[in-house]
Write a structure and sequence with these properties.
Radius of gyration: 30 Å
Strand order of the largest sheet: 1-2-7-8-5-6
Structural class: alpha+beta
Strand content: 15-25%
Order of helices and strands: HEEHEEEEHEEH
Oligomer: single chain
Number of strands: 8
Shape: globular
Distance between the termini: 113 Å
Number of helices: 4
Largest sheet: 6 strands, mixed
């Protein structure tokens, strides 16, 4: 009986050693030849007190209209017809340095045409004292936007 117990213990020990050997040999065979690390720039970054979000080449570019895209930008909320800056309310919106005068521009301009959006939570002295937030939008092709806004503002005689 003791010989049987010793034989079983020896067999278990041999199996455990074999499984360890096989794991070690597999680890020796699987050696990495090279490692490739891919990365990219973040879509949103802080720049001089403003959050700048890159739109071009990101999923935000497929949002639809400018209004639909703005509510998806970090720091923005509201609806596609009346976007707001979180905690600040309705912002003053500039498109390519020109103040947006007509809210219909939010529907006319497409998100694919936007390069980046800058959200300024604490506007400086260059803005009116009542302005609590500013959104500056830069388009990919300024002349194309100018043609669009110039033609749409003309009324037939």
């Amino acid at each position: 009986m003791t010989a049987l117990v010793i034989a079983m213990f020896w067999a278990m020990t041999v199996q455990a050693q074999e499984s360890q050997d096989s794991i070690e040999s597999v680890n020796k065979l699987v050696a990495l030849q090279e490692v490739v690390i891919k990365g990219g720039l973040p879509n949103t970054r802080l720049k001089a007190g403003a959050m700048v979000t890159r739109i071009e080449g990101t999923p935000l570019a497929q949002s639809g209209t400018l209004g639909e895209m703005l509510i998806k930008v970090p720091g923005m909320t509201g609806s596609d017809e009346a976007p707001e800056v979180l905690g600040k309310g309705s912002p003053l919106i500039y498109i390519n340095g020109r103040k947006m005068r007509d809210a219909s521009e939010l529907k006319r301009l497409h998100s694919e045409d936007i390069r980046d959006v800058e959200v300024i939570n604490a506007p400086g002295a260059q803005y009116d004292a009542q302005v609590r937030a500013v959104v500056r939008i830069r388009t990919r092709n300024w002349s194309q936007f100018y043609r669009l806004s110039h033609h749409s503002s003309q009324t037939p005689a």
